[in-house]
Amino acid sequence: MDHAGRRTRVAARLAEIGVPTILVTDRANVRYLTGFTGSAGVLLLSGDRPALLLTDGRYTEQARREGSGVEVLTPATGLLRAAAERAVDAGASRIGFETSLPYASFGDLAERLDGVELIGVSGLVEGERLTKDADEVRTLERAQACTDAAFDAVIGGLRPGVTERQVALELEIAMRRAGADDRAFEPIVAFGERAAEPHHAPTDRALTTADVVKMDFGALVDGYHADMTRTAALGDPGPELRRIHATVLGAHEAGVAALTPGVQVREVEAAARAVVEEAGYGHAWVHPLGHGVGLQIHEAPILRRDERTTIPDGAVVTIEPGIYVPGLGGVRIEDMVEVTEDGPRPLPDASKDLLVL
């Protein structure tokens, strides 16, 4: 991946806002700009000097191996303090910091850097991460392939008496067997009336005939996350849940169809929501339509109805409408979708139809 090119683009954006130097502390942003995957790292990025990656002794060799085109330093003092002192020694009088930095860390920095202007910078690297390059898309496709394989492996094993926890575990095992490094997040598996909880944590609730089965899960591959939801049923779930599934599928398709480069987030959300509201279930959809996905499971943009930002060409977002009826159950259908000039491209192969087992 072109880490040097990413750093050049970020440095150019820094120059535009008049911040010559920045301390990058967010782990996903450090990885995006350097390739370093360790849990302790601060990147000192200045437009006119080589990038400096600071880490501790646990990761020195790993940083040298993974860090793409950066100088690696293992300081005796704290990483953040050492990075800031390096910047000051190089003549920096204005230093940017990511606003995700803990307040206590900022306070310590401000106390030690008397006379240096500290400038909070929000969303700068994340803005670059909105558009996925070809390598990132290929990695997301690999993560999705592991997710699809897990769905195929588990769906046929659903039977009366199996528990939500057991299915969640089987999904994790199947993703690993398919080549995933890990799960992207803890799987959501919900049976019957529990499917009315959007983020239900799996329990020992056993599957019975006529239950819907909602599964939200994804694989992690080389740091990139997949995210997919499918809803099936063990036997006929009844006419209302069939209608709900058809409505959610229609909303999903409308949301996907609205994904064009430059479209406002709220327009995509409105296209999907119109289908749900026309069916009389507007009150039963209780979360955003979707979100960006990549090095983090939830990235910008968040597809909310009041969000006015636009979705760029090359973004990868989830489209995941849902309807949740307490006491009855719920349905969610979710795909990761790449936004392209040639039209939206869903990544999953798994069927979105209501699978009645």
**Number of E strands:** 20
Overall pLDDT level: 96
* Percent helix range: 25-40%
Shape, please? elongated
Strand-residue proportion: 15-25%
Largest sheet: 6 strands, mixed
SSE topology string: HEHEEHEHEHEHHHEEEEEEHHEEEEEEEE
Which class best fits the helix and strand makeup? alpha+beta
The oligomeric state is: single chain
Largest sheet, order of strands side by side?
A: 4-3-2-1-5-6
Low-confidence runs of at least 5 consecutive residues = none
Supply Rg: 23 Å
Brief summary:
This protein is α+β, with helices and mostly antiparallel strands and 357 residues long. It is built from 10 helices and 20 strands. The protein has a 6-stranded mixed sheet with strand order 4-3-2-1-5-6, with helices on both faces.
Can you give a write-up of this model?
The structure is a single chain. Helix content is 35%, strand content 21%. The protein is built from ten helices and 20 strands. The strands form six sheets. A six-stranded mixed sheet has the order 4-3-2-1-5-6, sandwiched between helices. A four-stranded mixed sheet has the order 8-9-12-20, covered by helices on one side. It has a three-stranded antiparallel sheet with strand order 7-10-11. The model has no long low-confidence stretch (mean pLDDT 96).
